[in-house]
Amino acid sequence: MAEVRYEAASRIYPGTDEPAVDRLNLDIADGELLVLVGPSGSGKSTALRMLAGLETVNKGSIHINDVDVTLKPPQDRDIAMVFQNYALYPSMTVGENMGFALKQQGIPKEERTKQVLEAAKILDLEPYLDRKPKNLSGGQRQRVAMGRAIVRSPQVFLMDEPLSNLDAKLRVQTRTELADLQARLGVTTVYVTHDQVEALTMGHRVAVLNFGVLQQVDTPAVLYSRPKNRFVAGFIGSPAMNLIDVDVSGDSGLKIGDLPVPLSPEVDAALNAMAPGKYTVGMRPEHLKFATEGIPGEVSVVEDLGSESFVHVTVDHQNESRTIEVRAEGETTIKRGDTVHIAFNGPAHLFGPDGERVGD
Amino acid sequence: MALFTRAPKAEPILGQNRAVANVLSFITWIIGLAFFFPLFWLTVNGFKEESVASADPTLIFDPTLDRFTEVTESNAGLLSFTEAFANSFWIVLTSTALVMLLAVPAAYALSIRPMRMWRDVLFFFISTKFLPIVGAIMPLWIIARDLDLLGTRTILIVLYTAMNLPLAVWMLRSFFAEVPKELIEAAQIDGCSLMGQIRQVLLPIVAPGVAATALLCVIFAWNEFFLAVQLNPTGASTIPVWVNSQQKFQGQFIASLSAASVLATFPVVIAGWVAQKRMIRGLAMGAIK
Amino acid sequence: MSNAVIDNEVESKQESHEAEVKRLEKLEGWKRRIPILPALIFTILVTQIPFLFTLFYSLTDWRIDKTDPRQFIGLENYTSLTSESEKFFRDAAWVSVQMTVLAVLLSLIVGTMLAILLDRKFFGQGFVRTLLITPFLVMPVVAGLMWKTQMFNSSFGLLNWALNGLGLDSIEYATRYPLASVIVVLVWQWSPFMMLIVLAGLQGQDQSVLEAARVDGATTFGIFRQITFPQLRPFLELGTLLGAIYLIQVYDHIEVIVGGQPGANNLPFYIAQRSIGGGNRFGLASSYSIIVVIASIIIANIGLRVLSGLLEDDS
Description:
The complex is a heterotrimer.
Chain A (H helix, E strand, L loop, with lengths): L3 E8 L9 E8 L4 E5 L6 H9 L6 E6 L2 E2 L10 E4 L11 H11 L4 H14 L15 H14 L4 E5 L7 H18 L2 E6 L2 H7 L2 E6 L2 E6 L1 H6 L4 H6 L6 E7 L6 E2 L2 E2 L4 H8 L4 E7 L4 E17 L3 E10 L2 E10 L9 E6 L4 E3 L9
Parallel strand pairs in A: 3-8, 3-9, 6-7, 7-8
Antiparallel strand pairs in A: 1-2, 1-4, 4-5, 9-10, 11-14, 12-13, 14-19, 15-16, 15-18, 16-17
Chain B lengths: L17 H29 L3 H5 L11 H7 L8 H31 L6 H10 L5 H14 L6 H26 L2 H9 L4 H29 L3 H6 L7 H12 L3 H33 L3
Chain C lengths: L2 H31 L3 H22 L17 H4 L7 H32 L6 H13 L2 H13 L5 H8 L7 H4 L1 H26 L3 H9 L4 H29 L3 H6 L9 H8 L7 H25 L9
Helix pairs in contact in C: 2-14, 4-9, 4-11, 4-13, 5-9, 6-9, 9-11, 10-11, 13-14
């Protein structure tokens, strides 16, 4: 039960100039499940390992429950970590794996067995307590890794892509179980993933990182509806938001093809106050529709998922060919090669030449 | 995960169809027997009468254990077999144990939490084997004499430890380097001390590699002749010295010499036979890195 | 409070934090060195003291038989090595090179072939493997004696018995072909060692890669050449390195099999002859030893640079 705070924490690998994590400021509330998400190399795992004490914090500090742990070794931080590859001790049984940390603390065998059993019950691991990791399936090993963390009753759970080695179906199932478990136990959890769908479904709040810099930290809803910059807009949401660059100069206004882009009043006002240049318009596929009039284009791919379809349309915009993805209701009759017209179904997002959100 | 599954048996490189496979098996058997033949012949000769051994080679004869009893009898002025065996046993056991005790932490410092100049340190260890023992024997002999260690078990224990340490450090380091970093990190987070990490997490995983290394040390220490004969010709002599003295004494007595040779090599051969599977697994685990 | 003061506070806190980080890193550096210190100190004491003595002797003209006291002569021993008087040294050096290179190469080839033959499932595989390992386990002295008296010997030796059976004359191998005889025994003893290493490499192969190659239509030999062999390289290199380190120092075999014949004197044996074996020229012999060390260091350095990933840093 603890709050976690990163204060301008940086990690610079020796021999490099660019920080892997650049002055990260993050406040995580007690009992919160905060997800660190970002593409490969974004620094999310590094940031997690800094909290674990496995990476040196070159600048800034990290606090757990208002205690500065920046210079403390991992074993003194009262944290538990679930590794991507589970890192189970191959020569020990499941029970011994789970009880290992307790053994290091000097807790007597009886008490250890009791605590291990409790955690095993929560995770349905009782029948496997005497097995060795090599005799377990991937999903079972994942649960043992979780069990090992739970048994410790730490202040913070750290999870480094714990689900990425599971097959797709198991991953979805385990995801909800994990979120449920965390809510029940109420332990502050920092969770790293590269899968933004996982991030949005699990996190109370999500922190998006890119090249070591925190882009935005908000609830999934806000991240989705109000991305702070171009990167977040394109990263969050599946399928990805359509991002079209528009050269805004003079009187031509904001248009895609020949269709003017609808903006909310504040954004419009903000745009008028800004200089001309290269702006980016963002439209989610579900905020576009097919109409009799609009941006003309030819259908290149139709992804029919049954309940909905995603139609890729090639359009001409500012003398270049672009692809726009439009969401259509299920069982569509549109096929490859059709000529269609795309219209807007709501106000668009707008990002300035610096990539930042324009407007609110 | 590589640690949990044995590598699947590699598909045979040669020959898929039955006939070819059988021919290859046959050839392998022939080669195996041929390779072993000199030792087989040696053993056979040990059971012969001298006259039989010196005559035309034959496999038909009346076997006898006389040669074996002859060479193991204590002869005045000659080394005793039982003494030499006891000396070899203790010297090899102690030096190998010492080697492992020193090499395990050393390997840790060169792989898991490597010190900054680990490559140079590793090269230093290897380079200690570049000096020919024959060249360094004078200073060694003088130092041993001055320390009153000539003809003792101690001097050979110390020297054999130094002799095998580079090999052990090299091999153990490569085995340790195979262990996934996350396991050590998990152990750290679980509050494990350095000794605990080595004992409870590391060693169980690299056990086959440790066995392979220990076996190699035993082989090299048991079979070492030059230092033993120079420093311990009479006191605390080892089996290699004993077998060599048999040659000097028995000269052209083939059967006796054979019997003595069999007795001398027998322990390490048995050890090697028993541990060979582990040796291969150990080497497969990561001898290359 | 003015901004400047706040900034100063933050900055000094930063600085002391950074200083603390540096201090901890230094401490960490020392903590990492501690586990290796016992082995390192032990090795330095036991190996470097004799080495320094040898180095010192190599700079003197120490002879046990003369009554003059040992004199410091600087690099004279070394410079004499190119002169006529040291022809035998150069011969011995050449023998060493031949012996090491041939023994290592042949053991590697034989060992690899054996490993390939053994890397299959067949009846009695374990037994045959046991048979093949045994030569490596045998005492060099015994191996030497055994081959000398029972295989090579012109009166009792088996090889000659076979030759006689074919109507050919006996050959006293050890005297006619001393170098070859020694190399035969060395290869016999070290092929199993190479075999074990290569076997380990073969067993680590990825099954699916081999299967993919078969599907792509590669021949058996082609698979070996293009897929297996490149993968075996690190193992072959390890075998070469370890084999060379031990085979350069071969002594027992030479004493026992050919005992001093010029054709098969390698450097260690020649060093022994010149010093403790009656030559009594300890100063000179020491210089030989130092030459061996220097040559080995140079070769090993080159070798290690060429060898793939033998000293990879995995951390």
